[in-house]
Amino acid sequence: MFPSTRVAAAAMLALIYMCSGCSRTPPDDPRRPVIATYASIAHATYEDTLLATRALDQAVDRLLAQPSPETLDAARQRWREARVPYSYSEAFRFYAGPIDAEGGPEPQMNGWPLDENHIDAVQKDVYNAAPGLDIIGNAKAFPEITPELIAAQNEAGGEKNIASGWHAIEFLLWGQDRNDPPESAGQRSHTDFVPTGDPATDVAARRGQYLKAATTLLISDLEMLVAAWDPTSPADAPNYRAKLVSGDIYTGLKHMLTGMAALAEVEMAGERMSVPLLSGDQEEEQSCFSDTTADDLRNNGAGITHVYFARYQRTNGETVSGPSLADLVKKADPRVAEEVDERLARTSDALGAIRNPFDREIQPDNAEGRTRVQTAIDALRAEALSIGRAAQSLQIFMSDMEGLGD
Q: Where are the beta strands (DSSP E) in 223-314?
């Protein structure tokens, strides 16, 4: 063989070796697009919440500029609208993601139940309210009401000393729910926001300052969450979304399944429904001032379906969708997929049957209401069990959750 021929043969062998090496390199995991779709839905949901909360902030400005029954009602309506996508978003919790990680904003966004006396003076014989700091009424101790003050005072001195977030704003907009008449929500008057003296000490003026500061703080927390899930983060400074989508597939899928199951079993069936059902205590109702708890629960349930089926319709009508957990489970075990589908539908029906006000549903003398709540609890627990089976079909192993069962 001539030298030139040997060189050519060696080059050919090297090329064959290189190509064979390329062919042995496994393609990227085909499940990764499922995690990418999940991240897109999370971003869209938080962005919708932020946009709706900015609309609430504008309504608060109008209320404080011109207090009236109409501007108060408008602010309440903007609060209700913003709660819808936020309630969806709770399916993105329970695995130390951006909202729940150490130092994350969840405790100052959605803390409850709250002792109203920590924020404002209230009628203390309602709910047997304990004496509180009365931040609004105590101008000497708290001369300036700012978002920073509210954040610092959240849970200060006790876990029910909630100073910030959705339910602090809810309390300021609706006031205490004295159940008069029994089916009504809080009956705060717009006159509670009409100043009559020095804004530094006037209670109505300070109440408005508190409402504005609490809304500003909530917007700041939502902006952080939107940024954490933003698909356009720079490559040299990847955010949570970028790390999740490019990271370990097993971990990403486990996060998705854990968020769904924990919301259904531990949070909804447990804290938000079983606890108030057992106690019959209005204070244990999540949105107890506006009496919109049943809506919260239905939207929490819808958030789980958004994750599982990878489909979310935004508030502007656009749809975010893509490869889903449902697709993976159906391919892995069609029988489990059918069970999950059926139980998600059953839960939706059961949650849809619960009536507002939730505090009337859980009263000991309301057998029909208590049955509706218990039926939804049972459906959620069965749903969580099926989510666990779905995880097993994908060889994803989640930690046991107390009370998980058919």
A: 311-313
Helix (H) or strand (E) holding 210: helix 203-228
pTM of the model: 0.91
Q: Rounded to an integer, what distance in angstroms lies between the CA atom of residue 40 and that of residue 20?
A: 36
Cα distance between residue 282 and residue 327, in whole Å: 41
The residue behind tokens 């100052």 is: 108
Residue 161 near residue 111, CB atoms below 8 Å: no
Can you tell me the distance from the alpha carbon of 291 to that of 81, in angstroms, rounded to the nearest whole number?
14
Helix, strand, coil content of the chain in percent (nearest 5): 60, 0, 35
From CA 1, how far away is CA 12, in angstroms rounded? 15
pLDDT digit string, tens, across residues 161-179? 999 999 999 999 999 888 7
Distance between CA atoms of 258 and 321, rounded to whole angstroms? Answer: 20
Whether residue 295 is predicted with pLDDT greater than 60 in this model: the reply is: yes
Q: How far separated are the first and last CA of the chain, in Å rounded?
A: 76
Instruction: Classify residue 212 by burial, with Cβ atoms within 10 Å: 0-12, 13-18, 19+.
Output: buried
In angstroms, rounded to a whole number, what is the distance separating the alpha carbons of residues 132 and 138?
11
Q: How far is residue 138 from each of residues 9, 12, 145, 199, 230, measured CA to CA in Å?
A: 90, 85, 11, 13, 41
Helix residue ranges, H only, 66-202: 69-89, 106-110, 147-153, 166-174
Tracing tokens 């309301």 back to the chain, one arrives at 366
What's the burial of 229, exposed, middle or buried (CB within 10 Å: 0-12/13-18/19+)? buried
Give the DSSP letter string of 324-340.
Answer: -HHHHHHHH-HHHHHHH
